[in-house]
Amino acid sequence: MLLTLLITVPLLGILGITTGISYNLLDTNRIKKTALSVSILNLFISLIIFVLFDFSHNQFQFVQEYHEISSFDFYLGLDGLSIYFVLLTTIITPIALLSNWNSIKENVRSYVIIILLLETLLLAVFLVLDILLFYIFFESILPPLFILIGLFGSKNKVRASFYFFLYTLIGSLFLLLSILTISSIMGTTDFDALCKTNFKYSTQLFLFYGIFIAFAVKTPTIFLNAWLLKAHVESPLGGSIILAAIVLKLSLYGIFRLILPLLPKASIDYTYIIYLIGVITIIYASFSTLRTIDLKELIAYSSVSHAAVYLIGVFSNTIQGIEGGIALGLAHGFVSSGLFICAGGVLYDRSGTRLISLYRGIAQIMPLFSILFFILSLGNCGVPLTLNFVGEFMSLYGVFERLPLLGAFASSSIVFSAAYTIYMFNRIAFGGYFTFTDKYKANKSDLNKREFFILLTLVVFTVVLGIYPAPILDGLHYSVSSLIYNNIFYQVMI
Q: What is the mean pLDDT of residues 454-461?
């Protein structure tokens, strides 16, 4: 019942907002408050599920089955891996709504409906136990994001929305072909049943190619990341937050659902190719980040580098690497959201520009903002006492255990991330007196209460879980250990 409630609460919120508008019962402010209340209610439901969840076994819990829906059965369930992605989704959604609280002034109803619909679809991706339904919900987030970027983005919004839609749609067609192949071979798309099957090695290879291409686009990796920069830069702030914090994690979650348990031998044999792609992506994205002059572009490019780190971590086939990859994915969700709010919700709203060269001396007039911005920048660097450090260290440790040489090259992300993040912070917070050209007239006020509490929430998650990561690592340990054990068992059987 709780999982159904988790998915239907945002839909009921959408229904209430739509019905209220048709009878002119809600003004703009009440629309926002209604949407925020619905998202916070969903957060409380997810926290109740987390408290009631039993981490002592790796079976699916809170399972709900709805039979005779069209030609397939509708299954919902949670395990020790998916529950953290559900929590991340319910935490980020209220933050995405609050981030654009004052900046979205037209089509407010459409904006909040799209955000709530995205929450439902993203939660469904993490909860369904059927790989065909996984694909359906995996693709269903494209139309809302397409409309969100196309309606509320900046000047090149139409081009960016088509880039995002076409790139991810075409890449996911390979995933659809792989799922249809699995269905035709096994006669079922039920995830629990497929985990007990054993494909021939040649079949695993072809399935691996199709599934990995789809997830490589979503991660994104080298040569497949052109859509990410345009989508991030042109989308509204709430869209950038959802893209970076949750949508980029769909590929990470999909690897745990479709590649590692179903295709163990292929994933092991192709580890060196994935590592090579990951290392090239890290180096390429880091150099691209070092040369960018746009603040939002810099944060978007840094997401590519961090995503490559947790991608290679989860393919290490070690407990440390897989747990580190998940921890880094969650940490990146908090830190990237905070940095996008700093860039788009604070600095851009006050000055109207994203050029780093036009900011300097912000620490003199916005000390509170500078402190929180500094902590988030340290998290982006992977500094100790942040969750990013825990995730990055464990991911790279897992890579070193498998392929030490490529692990050494992958570790360059530590140096590069420090270089471009500290460069960004130093130029904005210090670098002389605060001045602006006549073209950009800045509002020099420090953080208001809304901005302060949003950023403080993300900083607290980053620092507290960095100091004490046991709530994440202890919960993951049993599920990750079972996943690796099953991988070894099926490799022996092939």
A: 96
| Cα angle 211-403-333, degrees, rounded to a multiple of 5 | 55
- The mean pLDDT value for 233-259 works out to 93
Domain that holds residue 443: 270-494
| Residues 129/3, Cβ–Cβ less than 8 Å | no
Whether residue 166 lies inside any domain: the answer is: no
Q: Using pLDDT thresholds of 50, 70 and 90, give the confidence band for residue 70.
A: low
> CA-to-CA distance for 378 and 417, rounded, in angstroms?
10
Long-range Cβ contacts of 270-275 (<8 Å, 24+ apart): 270/208, 270/212, 271/315, 271/316, 271/317, 271/402, 271/403, 272/403, 272/406, 274/212, 274/311, 274/312, 274/315, 275/312, 275/315, 275/399, 275/402, 275/403, 275/406, 275/410
Asked if the model's pLDDT at residue 105 lies above 90, the reply is no
Domains in the chain: how many in total? Answer: 1
Is residue 434's pLDDT more than 60?
A: no
Average pLDDT (358-386) is 91
What distance in Å separates the CA atoms of residue 217 and residue 339, rounded to the nearest whole number? Answer: 23
Specify the DSSP class assigned to residue 294.
Answer: B
**310-343 burial by CB neighbour count: b if 16+ within 10 A, else e?**
bbbbbbbbbbbbbbbbbbbbbbbbbbbbbbbbbb
Residue 314 domain flag: yes
Q: pTM here?
A: 0.94
87 pLDDT band (50/70/90 cuts)? Answer: very high
Q: 170 lies in a domain? A: no
Quick check: is 27 in a domain? no
DSSP class of residue 258 equals: I
